[in-house]
Amino acid sequence: MKVVVYLPRMGYATGEMPHLRKPPKNYMPGQNLYYLFTACKNLGHQTKVIDGNWSSDPVKEILDFNPDKILISSTTPCFEDALNITEKLSETRYYGEIYIGGPHVNLNTSSREFLLPKSRNIIYTPIKSSFTTFDWVPQVFPEQSIFEVLGLPKDDAQKFILENINDKQILSTDELEPYIFSLFKPEFKWINDTYNPPDIVSTMQGVEIRYSIITSIGCSNSCSFCGNPFIYKINFKSEKVIRDILTEYKLNNINRLSVHDMFFFMSIKHAKMVINLFKEFNMDFSIQTCLENLNEELMDDLADANVKRVLIGIENPFSKTLDKKVDLNKVFRLLDHADKLKLQDCFKLSYIVGLPDISLANDLSLIRHIVTKIKKRNLPLTNLQVNLYTPYRPDPNKIYIKYEDKNPSNKSKNTIFILTKLSYTYWGLLPVGIGSEKDLTIQMTLCDIVYNEIYSEFKVKYLQIREKYLNDLAKSYPDLINNIPSFQESLRTYYESLVV
């Protein structure tokens, strides 16, 4: 069987950085592509990966390959292209099956009914259980076992797992499934084919590819807006598998990796093992972790292993939504220690404003903190996200409905209104979901201040997108346009807060 794995084109915002730099300095394919390709290949299918951010004519590439099935992994900012590609394929009378999964589909359970269109050949693949990245296998390939993603027949794969784990108390087949991730070795050689397409997007010409690895999944916290702990239980790659992956990278002259673990220090034992392996292989690397998990001892280990970048999730000291202890004094203590280790150029601090349980005044004070105390340290980057009610992990106490269905009976503090007529490409950059008209004013104010004070290098591009957003908002929701402050009004709100 022939299978295409397709990554849709991103919108204006993606993950931890604004997607406004054109062309990007470098490009890092997501681990979803590594895993989907390798799993399909191990299942015995001829597989091709196509990235909509690189291919200027992905429909032609797909049709030339003539796949039986297409797997689309979509985050919210790229969901619009996921829908566009399915429409274009339908117009060509493509009759294969199209599966759309990924965070947008799997986690927007609260609004899935009105966010996802109905089509004869589009199948949505929500994750069914909470501990594995391969639940989609029996949905896409009903005749095959989830264990076959290891590249072995089911019985041999189960035997292989039992021989390579320390847990001897396994009682059932279901208990073996979490260990698939631990022993799964994703391939990366498909990257050469994918990122040299016949017709490349002009802005991607000459852009360097960054390679990555994931050594653990899951999270020990329960932030209400994040899908990571919602999908996975905590799981770790075995040392032998990580060693094999690093060996393969070094044999192919790849000497720097980004570690995709969402929270690298969930297990100190595991983290130290991985750091030592990077040091042994003389592999440069970058990681991300959160403030509460990082300490001076681990920073010493990172410095000794020649780490190149550390993203530290500080987030917000005022919010209870995060369920985390945020000690801003610890930030400065760690930064001072970084100076001693000569790591000051490696650190990137990540904050969040706009969370539903805090006030505009608190958010403005956090922005002042970043501008007056953090940016003055001349760190290479400071990251600040505005949480724009992206309902990845819906709050069970909230009701999510389309804004156009609003009426007096459903207008309450427990309602989130999704602006479904706006382009998905705005998600993560400008408001697409609001709690009230007043909330829209606050969210826009924060967006404007962030791109004036924190991301000033992107301000011109942001203002262009902002104007387009306002035009779309006026057409789709004319009653809301009066709630949008001008850019100068937003800045005045910030500057007035400085003298309070």
Main sheet attributes: strand count, strand direction, barrel closure = 6 strands, parallel
* Mean of pLDDT: 83
- The largest beta-sheet arranges its strands as 10-13-14-15-16-17
- Which spans have pLDDT < 50 for at least 5 consecutive residues? 14-18
The CATH architecture of the largest domain can be named as: 3-Layer(aba) Sandwich
CA-atom Rg in angstroms: 23 Å
- First-residue to last-residue Cα separation: 66 Å
Global morphology? globular
CATH superfamily of the largest domain: Cobalamin-binding domain
Given the helix and strand composition, which structural class is it?
alpha/beta
Structural domains: how many: 3
Strand content: 15-25%
Number of DSSP strand runs: 20
The CATH class of the largest domain turns out to be: Alpha Beta
| DSSP helical segment count | 18
SSE arrangement:
Elements: E1 2-7, E2 13-14, E3 17-18, E4 26-27, H1 31-42, E5 46-51, H2 58-65, E6 69-73, H3 79-91, E7 97-101, H4 103-107, H5 112-115, E8 122-124, H6 137-140, H7 154-163, H8 178-183, H9 190-194, E9 208-209, E10 211-213, E11 216-217, H10 228-231, E12 235-236, H11 239-251, E13 256-259, H12 268-280, E14 284-290, H13 296-304, E15 307-315, H14 328-340, E16 347-353, H15 360-374, E17 381-386, E18 399-402, E19 415-418, E20 433-434, H16 437-453, H17 459-476, H18 487-498
Parallel strand pairs: 1-5, 1-6, 4-9, 6-7, 7-8, 10-13, 13-14, 14-15, 15-16, 16-17, 18-19
Antiparallel strand pairs: 2-3, 11-12, 19-20
Helix pairs in contact: 11-12, 12-13, 15-16, 16-18
